[in-house]
Amino acid sequence: MAAASVLALSAMAACGSASSNDSGSTSAGAPIKVALIPPAGGPLTTFGADAVKGWELAVKQVNADGGVDGHKVELVMKSTDADPATTLSQAREAVTKDGATFISAVVTSTENGALNAQLEGLGALSFISISKDDGLIGEQCSPNAFHLVATNSMDMNGLAQSLADIEGDKWAVQAADFVTGHSAADAFKAAAEAAGKEIVMEQFAALGTTDFGSNITKLKSSGADALFVAEYGADGVAFVKQAEQFKLDAQLKSVVGFNVVSEPLFPVIGDATVGWYSNVGYDVAGDNELNVGFVEAYEEEYGTKPYYVPADSYVAAQTLFAGIEKAGSVEPEKVAAALEDLTFDSILGEVTLRGADHQLLRPSFTGQVSGSGASLAFDILSRTDADVTTPEPSSECAF
Question: For residue 254, which phi and psi values (nearest 5 degrees)?
Answer without folding.
Answer: -150, 150
